[in-house]
Design goal:
- This protein has one helix at about 10-20, and strands at about 25-35, 40-45, 50-60, 60-70, 75-80, 80-95, 100-120, 125-135, 145-150, 160, 165-180, 185-195, 205-215.
- The chain is mainly beta and about 220 residues long.
- It has a single domain, classed as Beta Barrel (Porin), CATH 2.40.160.20.
- The protein has an 8-stranded antiparallel beta barrel.
- The radius of gyration is 25 Å and the shape is elongated.
- The chain starts with 7 loop residues before the first helix and ends with a strand.
């Protein structure tokens, strides 16, 4: 009778599980977004020291790569990287001949993680998903410029770093998956994001339209 070694058992189990674990489709591609909610905000406040005005502008367009893995029960998990620029202007008025203007520029880097559930078996499949997002404004990428000071010569410029942001939020999304010829997947979706912090954002509630292209 041939001998059966226990050392062979893990190898057999791994070989049997390999098609299940490694046979899941992996899609990679690029995703572009368009902000549908307000992208600007303006605030004015007054006090004993004078009048201050502040305006913020978040670029409506975002772009970045993504990866998506198919899971059992028609579930999919998606993650990626999104990049978006912003700028703002702040003016402190202390009197007719005493005021200072500042301008900031920077970028947001976001890493969303979303679990989706899709329905149907045709080339067009609706999906719904939820998850979270980690967002960061790197301090090394944030530039604050004092481009005018009434107490200094008009061309005086002072550059430095402003307050960075490292925050998170949660996501709800829904859309369609189109299976095009050649293995191309087209996924338009509407995504709602609720951020835990409003720093360097026009609002904590944000709605974007995204279009993903992947293989």
């Amino acid at each position: 009778m041939p001998r059966f070694h226990l050392s062979v058992l893990p190898s057999c189990c791994f070989a049997a599980a390999a098609p299940t674990v490694f046979g899941q489709p992996l899609y990679v591609g690029i995703k572009g977004g368009l902000l549908l909610t307000d992208s600007t905000v303006s605030v004015q406040s007054s006090g004993r020291t004078g009048l201050s005005t502040y305006s913020f502008n978040l670029r409506r367009y975002s772009l970045g790569p993504f990866v998506e893995v198919k899971l059992p029960w028609r579930l999919r998990i998606e993650s990626g990287f999104l990049y978006r620029r912003f700028d703002d202007t702040a003016v402190d008025w202390r009197g007719p001949s005493w005021w200072t203007a500042y301008r900031s520029r920077g970028s947001r880097r976001e890493v969303p993680v979303v679990v989706k559930r899709e329905w149907g078996a045709n080339r067009v499949r609706p999906f719904f998903g939820a998850g979270g997002v980690w967002s960061r404004v790197p301090p090394t990428d944030l530039e604050v410029e004092r481009f005018y000071d009434a107490a200094q010569p008009p061309l005086f410029v002072d550059r430095g770093q402003g307050a960075s942001d490292n925050t998170g939020g949660w996501i709800i999304t829904g859309g369609l998956r189109f299976r095009a010829p050649g293995g191309l997947k087209i996924t338009p979706e509407i995504r709602f994001t609720r951020y835990s912090s409003g720093l360097w954002l026009p609002t904590r509630n944000q709605v974007d339209f995204f279009l993903g292209l992947g293989f």
